[in-house]
Design goal:
7 helices, alpha/beta, 140 residues, five-stranded parallel β-sheet, 53% helix
Length: 140
């Protein structure tokens, strides 16, 4: 299974946000050779931008560097950027995530807490808690 992690999942994993962090952490812990985790280079940059206001920069960079070992990163291309800019998605950054995830082919889900903006996505969007339950069922 190939799972694309939206920016909010990365932020949740790296911060203390209660249940949000719990579910994000479980997704990372359940990732295996059969459950592959992906995200975009854009999501990493946005995560850094969001968290730098609240974190020690050196520590944040170290955490993000460690995270690159757990997640396969997909570079954002000019074609994806143009497609997102021309799309009718209401949120440009979400459109960029969708087209980035789509570029790998065979992506099964986009995991996000922002399901509303992913309704038109060709890749099904799923909430983190639902993803955790699905992965647990698959591992049985």
């Amino acid at each position: 299974m190939k799972i694309f992690l939206d920016t909010n999942i990365l932020v949740d994993f790296l911060t203390d946000r209660g249940a949000f962090t719990k579910h994000a952490t479980e997704i990372f812990l359940l990732g295996t050779d059969k459950i592959l985790l992906y995200s975009s280079t854009h999501a990493f940059a946005t995560t850094y931008y969001i968290l730098k206001k609240y974190s020690d920069e050196k520590e944040l960079r170290a955490k993000l560097l460690e995270l690159t070992e757990l997640v396969a990163l997909i570079d954002v291309t000019k074609a994806q950027l143009k497609k997102a800019l021309l799309s009718d998605f209401s949120d440009f950054e979400d459109a960029l995530q969708i087209y980035n995830a789509e570029s790998t082919g065979g992506m099964d889900y986009i995991v996000t807490r922002n399901l509303r903006d992913f309704k038109k996505s060709p890749i099904p969007a799923i909430a983190p808690d639902e993803m955790v339950e699905m992965i647990k069922r698959l591992k049985k």
